[in-house]
Amino acid sequence: MRIASLKAYEILDSRGNPTLRVKCFLEDGTVGIANVPSGASKGKNEALEIRDGGNRFFGKGVLKAVRNVEDEISKALVGKNALDQWLIDKTLINIDGTPNKSRLGANAILGVSLAVAHAPPTYLRIPLYRYIGGISARILPVPMLNFINGGWHADNNLDIQEFMIVPKGFERFRDRIRCAVEIFQTLKDILKEKGLSVSLGDEGGFAPNLSSNKEALDLLMMATERAGYKVGEEVFFALDCASSSFFDEERGIYRFEGKELNGKDLMDIYADYIKNYPIISIEDPFAEGDYDSWREFTSKFGDRITIVGDDLYTTNKKLIREGIEGGYSNAVLIKLNQIGTLSETLEAIEITKSAGWKAIISHRSGETEDTTIADLAVGTNAGWIKTGSVARSERTAKYNRLIEIEEEMGI
Ligand code: PGA
Ligand code: ZN
Question: Mutation test of ligand 1: which of 152, 288, 308, 335 has the most ligand atoms closer than 8 Å to its C-beta?
């Protein structure tokens, strides 16, 4: 299964920005294909996607990354066995030579890493999840669906970036999704009745202007109950605060609902949410450097809810290890393009799980029709996936792939 050539294309993501598609051709003609996603609310330590600058696409073109794939990376990988994923990813890391993949670009590197990963299962005519997880791959994840979008993902007044529903009380993935869809359509009716906007944010959730962040939770409650589901039994809620986006770094304060808050004040607000709503998970409740708040919040609430580090860890094993040592959280959001290769992502998942923490496989706000993360979630038995709402094809593509996998598995 030797790599014969690599080809890259400048395609578009769901926000209309350029991104990469990479094809990995094996010597017998088999092709592995992957597209690269792109975030908006990024962690400081993320691997760096490179953009061209200049006038084309207002500087966002990725032709340099395309060239890097077809020239330098191709030279290093052609002739290598596509089954040697670790060796290939190591080679990519070494030839780049920077700690954050900024020379060749994390977008070029991830595109190649994933295109290579798709080639052997295609050759073997087995699904990607089976290639990643072997016969132990069996768990369909519980989806965390972002139904109300705020923060930098929407043009509204909500500080919290994601208000999610978690249909946890169902055996089958298909029933989790059906429940989610029924709540989503009911939420749309409720928003219309209230004269609120039903336009969608970047991740396919609604993006209305509301009087407070709490009103978003009230709307999720109403929609869940009106759709006929039991709140706190079948359906739970989750938040991604993405709090770095409302943190004033210079002054060390959070700007939340028009007020200036410290970590303690913000913690009181979260405590109030947890008391009044069936919240089972809060992601990035505090900014990346605010370790004291993270630690205190986890020691107070970590036995009741999942506390997820996204920007805090950026899928980086060194930072995850520090978090485990320091007791900052009890879960990690896993994003392939934050670290830049499949092998490093698998390692991050392993380290997270071996601490007894949850690993939540995640999309980015800028996505494509690529469904690799659905297979990654099943292949690693992660148990959780966060991939937006049940509208917009770049989001439903992942859910549709999981529906297909469940059918294939005969469960
Ligand atoms: P991003 O958002 O892809 O814009 O970073 C997703 C998240 O914060 O989880
Ligand atoms: Zn996040």
Answer: 335
Q: What is the pLDDT of residue 237?
A: 98
Contact by Cβ (8 Å): 161, 152: yes
Transcribe 301-347 into DSSP letters. HTTTSEEEESTTTTT-HHHHHHHHHHT--SEEEE-HHHH--HHHHHH
Compute the C-alpha angle 236/238/242, nearest 5°: 175
| Catalytic center residues | 203, 335
pLDDT digits (tens, 9 = 90+) for 366-396: 999 999 999 999 999 999 999 999 999 999 9
> In terms of Cα–Cα distance, which of 98, 73, 101 is closest to 88?
73
Half-sphere exposure of 66 (CA within 13 A, CB side): 14
Residues of the chain with pLDDT under 50: none
Q: What is the pTM of this model?
A: 0.98
Q: How far apart are CA 4 and CA 23, in angstroms?
A: 11
**pLDDT recorded at residue 411:** 79
Six-digit token pair at 320? 């995850």
Phi, psi of 90 (to 5 degrees): -60, -45
Rounded Cα distance, 306 and 358, in Å: 8
* Domains of the chain, earliest start first: 3-125 (3.30.390.10), 134-409 (3.20.20.120)
Q: Indicate the pairing of strand 253-256 with strand 247-248.
A: antiparallel
Letter for the amino acid at 306? Answer: T
pLDDT digit string (tens) for 21-54? 999 999 999 999 999 999 998 999 999 999 999 9
Structural contact between residues 107 and 113, judged by C-beta atoms closer than 8 angstroms: no
Q: What is the pLDDT of residue 96?
A: 98
Site of tokens 């520090």:
322
> How far from 315 is each of 160, 292, 342, CA to CA, in Å?
22, 21, 11
Residue bearing the CA closest to ligand 1, atom 1: 39
* Cα torsion angle, 70, 110, 47, 350, sign: negative
CA of 42 to the centre of ligand 1 (A): 7
User: How many residues does the structure list for the chain?
Assistant: 411
